[in-house]
Amino acid sequence: MGSLTVRNLPEDVKQRLRMRAAANGRSMEEEVRLLLAEGAAETPAPVKKPAAAKGAEQAAPATHRVLLIIAGGIAAYKSLDLIRRLRERGMAVRVVMTKAAQEFVTPLSAGALAGERVFTDLFDPASEFDVGHIRLARNNDLIVVAPATADLMARMANGHADDLATAVLLATDKPILLAPAMNPRMWGNRATQRNIARLVADGVATVGPNSGEMAESHEAGTGRMAEPLEIVAAAEALLTRTHDKPLAGRRIVITSGPTHEPIDPVRYIANRSSGKQGHAIARAAAAAGARVTLVSGPVELPDPPGVATVHVETAREMLAAVERALPADVGIFAAAVADWSVAQAGAQKLKKDGGGPPQLALVENPDILATIAKLKAKRPRLVIGFAAETEKVIEHAKAKLKRKGSDWIVANDVSAAGGAMGGDNNAVHLIIANGGEVNVESWPTQSKDGVAKALVARIAAALKAAP
Ligand SMILES: Cc1cc2nc3c(=O)[nH]c(=O)nc-3n(C[C@H](O)[C@H](O)[C@H](O)COP(=O)(O)O)c2cc1C
């Protein structure tokens, strides 16, 4: 209706409307709607209110604006519930649907639930005139793609803009949350994993996919779309970070967990790191508003919501993922990276052939902390290493600080008596390079979440003190 009204207006009125809309940062359609609403409010006409107007009148202003992109996967039916759940939380939801998505759910259903028309076409003159793909990309606080199909992610990862959804995703400056959903084999395919790793390194956040039975077949595995309430929780985590958050606008890269260095296709060298401390720091940093990339070795922990998590196995893969995640304001290297890997990992399983145990030649792995601390152009302003020591904790950590060129070292006692490896508590010492001096703070034993929050508070204070 709004678009017809605008298009039929005289050119000079349209021009004034265009200027007014641009000055107010609104689309022309929104501007017209507001003008009509203002006009109606000023006109004391004894009009009988339609029933729908009552709810609208009472509705509180939306807290956040979410652009939901629905792609063509079988899980699209869950996105209708997602619209309801987001709106229940006071968010305004605008919907874009791909051509394939319309094979699964109709724009009519999505529009009825969102309370406004759905956008489907890049070359639709009416929507380009009213809103346009650039406005769709910018006039929101967050873009959620649910379900995110393998195809859409492939196009995103390669910077395509060949339909409305990808054009919006390429043109946006807002955070993006993907809820991938597909057949487990599609998800496990190297191409999909390559694409998602690239998107995550670009700063895109993900939620799911979950494991379980697939909707369309009796196949089970990883590929189910996260449930609507999980997506809402991840969206809220991303949205709240922009308001009053000490690390808002900061980029942080964190490593966590062990690495696995292959001996042959079934055996590897590992260590007892659980990843609990690194993951706790990622959660705390995200809660403080940072854009976090978590590079995680193999762990039994869920990906923290609202955090871009990259999964790696070896030290070399971890270094490459960290380098891809730069530039960042802060680098926190909490992973227990294997010092050595096997020089020639067997392509086939090593066999007991009666000739005695195999002789494994080891080679040194790259030193991730030292490599990043010594970077020239892309060195994070604050480089924080972790030192896992079983004796002379502070002495060894001070030496590590110097050797690696990091700014801080978080030293923890990982001897069996301390129980930090795999446990929920940690007693750490914060070693800080302060000009030519080294300051040491010994923190009381506390939960790993407690250590994470305290560390994040220290980081926020340090960045504020030296902006
Ligand atoms: C019945 C059916 C179900 C499908 N389900 C999925 C799915 O769950 N995930 C996925 O990535 N692709 C799925 N596809 C394939 C996509 O629809 C196809 O790749 C399409 O090009 C995606 O387009 P879009 O990304 O622009 O929405 C399905 C196709 C069919 C016919």
Structure commentary:
This protein has 18 helices and 21 strands. The chain has 467 residues and is an alpha/beta fold. Strand 9 and strand 10 form a beta hairpin. Helix 2 packs across helix 3, helix 5 runs parallel beside helix 6 (107-114) and helix 5 packs across helix 13 (228-240). It starts with a helix and ends with a helix. Bound molecules: flavin mononucleotide.
What is this entry, summarized?
The chain is an alpha/beta fold and 467 residues long. Helices cover 39% and strands 21% of the residues.
Question: Can you give keywords for this protein?
Answer:
five-stranded parallel sheet, 2 domains, eight-stranded mixed sheet, 467 residues, Rossmann fold, binds flavin mononucleotide
Set out the fold topology.
Elements: H1 2-7, H2 11-23, H3 28-42, H4 51-58, E1 65-70, H5 76-88, E2 92-97, H6 107-114, H7 125-130, H8 132-138, E3 142-148, H9 150-157, H10 164-171, E4 176-180, H11 184-188, H12 190-201, E5 205-206, E6 210-213, E7 220-224, H13 228-240, E8 251-256, E9 261-262, E10 268-269, H14 276-287, E11 291-296, E12 308-311, H15 315-325, E13 330-333, E14 340-342, E15 362-364, H16 368-373, E16 382-389, H17 393-404, E17 408-413, E18 425-426, E19 428-434, E20 437-442, E21 446-447, H18 448-465
Parallel strand pairs: 1-2, 1-3, 3-4, 4-5, 8-11, 8-13, 11-12, 13-16, 16-17
Antiparallel strand pairs: 6-7, 9-10, 14-15, 17-19, 18-21, 19-20
Helix pairs in contact: 2-3, 5-6, 5-13, 8-10, 9-12, 14-18
The structure holds flavin mononucleotide (FMN).
